[in-house]
Write a structure and sequence with these properties.
Helix content of chain B: over 70%
Mean pLDDT of chain A: 86
Low-confidence stretches of chain A: none
Radius of gyration of chain B: 24 Å
Strand order of the largest sheet of chain A: 6-7-8-3-9-10-12-11
CATH superfamily of the largest domain in chain A: P-loop containing nucleotide triphosphate hydrolases
CATH architecture of the largest domain in chain A: 3-Layer(aba) Sandwich
Oligomer: heterodimer
Mean pLDDT of chain B: 84
Low-confidence stretches of chain B: none
Structural class of chain A: alpha/beta
CATH class of the largest domain in chain B: Mainly Alpha
CATH topology of the largest domain in chain A: Rossmann fold
Largest interface: A-B, 30 and 22 residues
Shape of chain B: flat
CATH architecture of the largest domain in chain B: Orthogonal Bundle
Number of strands of chain A: 12
Strand content of chain B: under 5%
Structural class of chain B: mainly alpha
Distance between the termini of chain A: 31 Å
Distance between the termini of chain B: 9 Å
CATH superfamily of the largest domain in chain B: MetI-like
Order of helices and strands of chain A: EEEHEEHEHHHHHEHEHEEHHHEE
Number of domains of chain A: 2
Shape of chain A: globular
Number of helices of chain B: 13
Order of helices and strands of chain B: HHHHHHHHHHHHH
Number of helices of chain A: 12
Amino acid sequence: MLLHVNQLSIHFHARQGIVKAVEDVSFDLAEGETLGIVGESGCGKTVTALSLLRLISNPPGIIAGGEIFFQGRNLLKLSEKEMCDIRGNHMAMIFQEPMTALHPVLTVGRQVREPLIVHKKAVRKTAVQDCIRLLKRVRIPDADTRLHDYPHQFSGGMRQRVMVAMGLACNPKLIIADEPTTGLDVTLQAELLEFMKGLTQTEKTALVLITHDLGIVACYADQVMIMYAGRIVEKAPTLELYRAPQHPYTQGLLASIPRLDQDIQQKLRPIEGQPPDMANLPSGCAFHPRCPHAKPRCMRELPKLMQISTGHDVACWMHSR
Amino acid sequence: MKPFILKRILYAFLILFLVSILIFLLGRAGDPLEKAALSTRMGMADSEVVDALKVQFGLDRPLHVQYYLWISNFIRGDWGKSLFYREDVREMFINRLPITLELFAGFVFWSAIIGFPFGFIAALKRNSWIDASLTTGAVIGISIPVFWQAIVMIYLFAVAVHIFPPSGYVPFSEDPWKNLLSIAMPSFILGTHSAGIISRYVRSSLLEVLGQDYIRTAFAKGLRAKAVLLRHAFKPSLIPVVTVIGLEWGYMLAGAFIVEYMFAIPGLGRMCMNAIFAGDFPIIQATLILVAGNIILVNFVVDLLYGFLDPRVRVQ
């Protein structure tokens, strides 16, 4: 197993008290596999991703418990120096806002070749060659001249591709893509995702794909993990999840997106209510105030994540026997 | 980049031209001022003498002709004769300029050597007692008026403990060590304000940069904290700092006048102060032109530095 996350909890110390941004999250990821993490804003998906690279800023954030095994090593036990050798080298992250995530006053070339210089001890000249090769690989036209340009001279889609090139620089075993296609138009989205899917097949790269777009997940992920209020509410192989969603929240998410095979007359059903205040979560199951099936027990007790069939886990009282 | 620089140069000259008109008019502001200025040194001068003087200094001609003569002479290097000292104004400037420049170098030295490290450390040790004390120090440095600080420092370091001379200036050629001692305190006093301002700006600007997404990206690439700081955070954090350094430059000129006066340093500031009291308008005019030129030049340099620090400024 390439990545094994076990009962991960991440807390933030805020003025209102301790915010449990991620609580008791476990998952596995094998080489060449893609895991989709889906949820509303603030459900803990980005925090989970950042914690894999140990990039949670402390203070205010702290990894309160759990284990993250990557290539057999517990990342939470490594020194900062050892962690630096993993970041950008064996595990890379693609951030969601290429506008702000790229350095505004450094040239694109310098930013893309930096991981090579840091990790592969590449000399400048070979690094420049590698950098051109990388930019060509993500299909930046005129890569050999454009690497002298600055991010503001690139279009949004090209900036995102530069981010990807930067992530690919050292051929990482795991790429974490945090909403990589937000703000891109649909054709660019498809192109980028196809490219990353290609990587998982040819390079056996594992991919953590964070998104709130269930459509993307359906096409590109092998496994899907639905998060709500910092916890996993459902985890299943992609086909299984779309065929038979078990958690009311998953069902609600799927009912709220339009489908081609649906009658046009049928209205979309949004999930009632608002996402919860993370500093002040509802008692019991955090979803109960919005859940159409809520029972008294849901208000009192937190349902545990239970396996209902092979690889399909749900945290809901409806499914516990 | 080229049209950008060209445009800035053009602007600089336009501003200098407008300022020169203003300075000229200020120098000739009304007859009464002139009469008062002239008469103070000649007792009750009779009108014939005053008229003769007016002809001698060309004050009887129409204003635009006067301006033309003054500015063309000025550009040619003829800055007129001092009314009071009867010396060539340009000569007087050339003699006093090195002294002010030395004071100036001291000012740059103190404000940089205090301002930058203080700001850096305060940002890195944010919200600690170190940050709190550095910030307090900076605010004190900004708020203390130059003249008061001068009095206190003269008392402490020249009267109570004899480390520095209380006033006066020793040329470098005469005694290098005494020269440094005589310039150390006045330049420090000048630098205090800027050091405070610079450290405040470095702190807040560095903190802002460190909170940016691209810094997180740098960490995600596997860079060590030190490399992130030096290669990614330092350059963009300088952008706002450059602006205040430009502003402080102008402040320093005003401060230099006071400090030179208090420490009896025979530089440009002291000469100009005396000229103002004496109504010696050729000197006042020349000083103002140089001060304005200096500030315009600094603004130009700041603009160029922006272009160097931030590529987004270059494309327009």
